[in-house]
Amino acid sequence: MKNTNHDQQLHNDVIETLRETSRTFFIPISLLVTELRETVASAYLCMRAIDEIEDHPDLEPALKSKLLHNIGDVLQSAQYNKETFIKMFKPFENELPEVTLRLYDWISFCPDEIRVKVVESTAIMASGMGDWVDKDWQIQSEADLDQYTYTVAGLVGVMLTDIWKWYDGTEADKELGIGFGRGLQAVNILRNYKEDAERGVSFFPDSYSLDDMFDYAHKNLSRADEYVASIETETIVNFCQIPLSLAHGTLKALVDGREKMTRDEVNETVNKVIKKTS
Length: 278
Hints:
Number of helices: 13
Helix content: over 70%
Strand content: under 5%
Distance between the termini: 37 Å
Low-confidence stretches: 1-6
Shape: globular
GO molecular function: squalene synthase [NAD(P)H] activity
Organism: Cytobacillus kochii
Structural class: mainly alpha
Protein name: Phytoene/squalene synthase family protein
Radius of gyration: 18 Å
Pfam family, one: SQS_PSY
């Protein structure tokens, strides 16, 4: 696969697509040093490409599952090129967003030395999400919840941990990295559970009360705090602190009976981290 890291147009496309697809991660990624910024941006877009398929409101579950499993199989085989994905996505080119249709571009933008790890995590996520589509997202036990949150968010922590090690040898704990992803996802579940219920979906295990899910979120955010505290590289810490601080703030707002943080609270939280980098 040709390394296109220095293709200015692709670079611009990566940054612009990131800006359009992620309010949570655009700012922290933009604070990273250049080499990490490009790597984390392209890695994030790889996973966002997969996530858009799972969340697509109009694709039939059988088609979602087939497409996700096909992507997982192709990525694990390492036998693919741009034409592979053009052909795979052709039947869905009018339904899928650009971030998904350009999956190969995001993969090709990753530096050669870390690309295999990014692809590995993306492949596991794609296959895992396909499995959850097949299960109709039925979460019955805490073990199911752990597996679901690992698939859709914990793998992000695994991938980031691999990227930190590639960048400067940072040896962060992958299990705590999984907690980082799980904590953010648990807060999302709590923030959206009423809306999810309206469409007949619940990510709460059968035995879970609302308090149990709050406990699950607190537990994993504590692991996320440990994860960040173990890292010494300032640019990595700053990246992690924004989504983690926002998750803590959102959880506090939910505990207080509010739906979300106020705009002023969000701006204050983000600005605290930004000031540390200036």
